[in-house]
Request: fold
Amino acid sequence: MHPKKDIFKPIRIYKFCEMSAMLILALIYFLIVYLNDDLRNHVFSDPAITVLSIIVWLCLMIGFICSTIDFIKLKAIAQTERNLNQLAYLDHLSGIPNRHSLDLLFREFDGRQRMNHIGGILFKIDNLYDLNTAHGRESGDKCIKDFSTMLQSGATEDVGFFCRNSGNEFIVIFENYDELALGRFLSTIREKLHTYNREQDGLPMKIGYVTMSNEVDPVSRLYAFITRLYDKYKLSAEEL
Reply:
């Protein structure tokens, strides 16, 4: 996805230019007085001019200091704004992108040209209800977090996007679908899942999945592609 436009960038540039100008003017003023013997003697021989010169130089330095403080505060505000944006598009439980992130992706892949080579996987934790019933909701939440970690650690550059779309559903999008790359990704997740289940004392986590590419009977919108992915899951889901 394209990053959100940095609305603070023009202000930072302005503040940086202001800060630089203040510093340069203060240095020029100091050097002119310091290097010119006649001017320096004249300035320091007249108390009024001495005070006026000090005031002018102090104003320039105070302006530089204030601009520097503004610049630092602006960076902190921009970072806070970035953090809030991340929270809005990250799932609070798993820490991976959420459904809002998928909505942004819908806008980016709105057109047949971008959709020509799309592929996808829909994963579901099929026994999440059983896990919650047997061991409590905390156990189910842990499974969601742990499977999200598997997706994060297993994702390669072939995976364009993945998210938690709802309670027990996860979507993986391949921008340039490649059957071998998708197979490698599935093998990696399957191995991580089997290792995970061997280490659990209670019920094993059961993951259903379905894969699909947009090359056969293609659609021009990502929303339609994901709808088909869900329809296919109802008909022919497999267990990981």
About this structure: The chain has nine helices and five strands. Residues 89 and 101 are 5 Å apart (CA to CA). The chain has a mean pLDDT of 82. The first helix runs from residue 9 to 35.
